[in-house]
Amino acid sequence: MKQTWSLTEFTETRELGRGAQGRVVLARHRKSGALVAIKYLERAAPEALAGLRAEAQMLGRLRSPHVVRLYQFVETPQGAAIVMEAVNGVSLRAILDKHGALAPEAALTVLKGSLLGLAAAHSVGVVHRDYKPANVVVREDGLSKLVDFGVAALAGQGSSSGTPAYMAPEQWRGEPASPATDVYAATGVFLECVTGRRPFAGVEAAALMHHHLNVPVPLNDVPEPLRPLIARGMAKDPGQRPPGAAAFVAELEATARAAYGPDWERRGIGALAGAAVALASLFPLTALAVTPAGAAVAGGSVASSVGQGLLATAAGKVTIAVAGTAVVAASAGTVTYATRDASPAPRPSPAAVVTTATESWTSANPRVVLQNAQYVRVSGLRDAALQQRINRALRAPLDRLIKMGREHAVRSRTACEGRPTQIYSTVRLGVRGPALVSVRYRLWSDWCQAADGMPAGEVVTIDLRTGRRLTATDVFRPQTLTPTGLSRLQSLVVQREPDPPWSNCAPEGRFTRKHFGDWTAPAGDREPPMLSAFFTPSAFELAWHVSGSDGCQTLTFTAPYAKVRDLLQPSVLSLLNPSPTPS
C-alpha cells in the first residue's frame, strides 16, 4: 500500500509492520532526534478509527514506568496516528520461543513487572483484556514494560476480545471485564514461563473455550511452591482470584521470598537480562545506532546514545488492521561509567552500604494501597543513631507521599465511592558513597482513580558523615545564587531528555526563572523545592519536579562537572568520591 500521509515533524527510520489499513514505523523527531514508535491508521473504517482513538485514550490515562508511554495522538482527514515511546528490549514471546521455560525466579520477576504495569492501568479504571507474551517487552537490564492497549477497556465493559490461549472464563462468556480478568491472563502467561507450555493445549477455539470454562489448569509440572499462586490466579470464578494486580503482587512477593530467598528478584532480573541480550544476534539491524526518547536513564541503568542498537517486531494479533508491533531497541549491555579517585575525601568507617528497598501494604481505614513503593536506605554504619537519621531523611519523600495518600483518602471518602487511593514511588540512585548519597524520587498516585495529577517528585542528597540533608545553599557557592550567578548556571546546564521529547517546557533546552521557585529553602512537609541539585557519577544535574498532569511535570538539566565546578561549594566537591572526571 502506498504511503498516503505521515507526521511532518518526524522522519521515518524503518517500517516495522503493515496491514490492510495502516502501518507501524520507527521514526525520529526532526528537531530533537528522539526515537519514537508511530502507529498509523490510513483510510480506515470509522470503527477502526474509533479503536485507535480508544487506545490513545487508554494510554493517555497511564503514567507508569511499567507501561509504554503515549506522547501524542493525531487525527486528520487522511487518518490517525499514535506516537509512543520506543522501548529498549525484546518481546517475552521471542524469549519464550528461543529459551522455552524460564527459571522460577525469572518467571516471577517478569510476572511482577507485568503486574505492576497492569496495576497502573487498574488504578485509573482500565482493563488491558489482552495480556500475553507478545505484549510484554523485556529490556536488556531484565526489567519489563507492558505494551499494546489496542483492546483495552474501562472496567465493567464486556466483550470477547482477547487472545484465546489466555482469555479468562468471563471473556469467553462475553461478560464485563475486571482487573481480575487481567490477573487470569497474567497467571496463564506465568505458567507458560515456568513450564514452557500454555495453560491448555490445542488451537481450536471451541476446545480452548471448554477448557478455560470447565477444566482445572494442569499443575503437575509446576514447581510445588508456585502451584497455589497459579491456582488462585486462574480460578474460574473471578471473585476467587486476587481482586487486582496490585493485590497479586503482594502475594507473589511473599511466595517468592518463602520459596527462593530474599534475593530472588536479583537473580531473576539477571536471568531475564541474559535471555534478552542473547537474542541480539537474531535482530536484523544490528548496526543501527538509536536513541529512544527518554532512554538516557531508565530504571537505574544508563543506555548509551551512541551505542549499537537493534530492532525487532513482536509477534501478535492484528489490532485495527495493523500488526500488534512492539518497537524495541536493545543494546548488548549497559554503559558503566568509571571515574578516577583524584583526592578522596575522608571515608566513613565503615562505609555505608546503599540499597534500594520496596514496601507494600494495604490499610482499611482510610483505604490506601501502597504497591511496591521504592525507597533508599543505608546499612553497615557503626553509629546506629547516625544510620537512623540518614535513613529517616532518605525515606522522607515516601513518608510525605503516604501522608498525602492518607489525607486524600479521608478527605475524598465520599467522592472515591469505596475505591482505595493507590500510591507508589520509584527511585533513581546517583552518587552512592562513600561520603555522599544522592537520590531522585518520582511519586505516583491514582487519587482513587481520579487521575487528576501526580504529586511532585523530590531529590534527597545526604552527607553520610553527618546525616545532614543538603539544600541549594549547601551545594552552591554564594555568588552562584545571585542573579549573575544564576544566569551563568542557566547557560551551562541544558535539558537532557524532554518528555515528550519535543516539548517546549524549557525553551531552547534551558531552564528559566520560573524553574527557580524557592529552591534555597529546605524541603517542607508538603512540597519540596521545585529545582534541586542531583549528583550522578558521570554528570551534574538539576532536577525539576512539580505536581500536576502535564508533560512538564518532570524535567532534567545536565552539564559535565568540569563546567560547573567553580559554581559548587568546595565542601560538596570534597564529598564527591570517586571524583567526577572532567569532561
UniProtKB/TrEMBL annotation:
Top class in the EC scheme: transferase
InterPro entries in UniProt: Kinase-like_dom_sf, Prot_kinase_dom, Ser/Thr_kinase_AS, Ser_Thr_kinase
Domain Protein kinase: 10-256
Keywords: ATP-binding, Kinase, Nucleotide-binding, Serine/threonine-protein kinase, Transferase
Cellular component, GO annotation: cytoplasm
PANTHER family the UniProt entry points to: MITOGEN-ACTIVATED KINASE KINASE KINASE, PROTEIN KINASE DOMAIN-CONTAINING PROTEIN
Protein's name in the database: non-specific serine/threonine protein kinase
